[in-house]
Design goal:
Elements: H1 2-34, E1 39-40, E2 43-44, H2 54-63, H3 72-82, H4 87-91, H5 96-122, H6 132-144, E3 157-158, E4 163-164
Antiparallel strand pairs: 1-2, 3-4
Helix pairs in contact: 2-3
Length: 165
């Protein structure tokens, strides 16, 4: 009973996978037709299976023979139909870095804006101990109560003379 359930689950998973693959292929084909992807710029979409015209089929048969018999124009057509981009087109800058830089700059500016607003509206005023007078009073109390007499401020103060060593 358990084995039949497992087998049935496997069949359902395989059927679901096939259904998704077929739906994805149909969607890609419909999208390509809908958006007019038969051209990239001024040239045709390249690669096997797209736009396989009679001319390309004849060139493919001719390609199986001696390549010296092919003209330069025929070789270019075969290359253009077999590969999407030339090496110079692959190496050409795309300008995608501008988008990434703008996203980074936007994120940094939002973080700075949040920081400024948080400092202004969320935090209260600084305590009195952070002012110059407050720090001096704290230092005087440390000397008066002899805190950390070995390594601290009290070790650098001469209590007999009432001055710093």
């Amino acid at each position: 009973m358990i084995l039949t359930r497992i087998a049935r689950m496997n069949q359902l998973m395989i059927a679901n996978r096939l259904r998704k693959q077929i739906a994805n292929q149909v969607m890609v084909q419909q999208t390509a037709l809908m958006h007019g992807r038969s051209l990239i710029g001024s040239r045709e979409v390249v690669g096997h299976g797209f736009n396989e015209t009679d001319e390309i089929k004849k060139l493919r048969e001719k390609e199986k023979g001696d390549w010296n018999k092919l003209s330069l124009e025929e070789k270019k057509k075969l290359y253009r139909h077999s590969f999407c981009l030339t090496l110079s087109e692959v190496d050409a800058p795309t300008g995608e870095w501008k988008i990434h830089l703008s996203i980074v700059m936007y994120t940094v500016s939002m973080a700075l804006l949040f920081f400024i607003l948080a400092r202004k509206y969320f935090y209260g005023p600084l305590p009195a101990s952070m002012s110059l007078e407050g720090k001096q009073a704290q230092r005087d109390l440390e000397i008066k109560y002899k805190t950390n007499p070995i390594f601290g401020l009290a070790s650098k103060f001469d209590y007999e003379k009432g001055d710093w060593k």
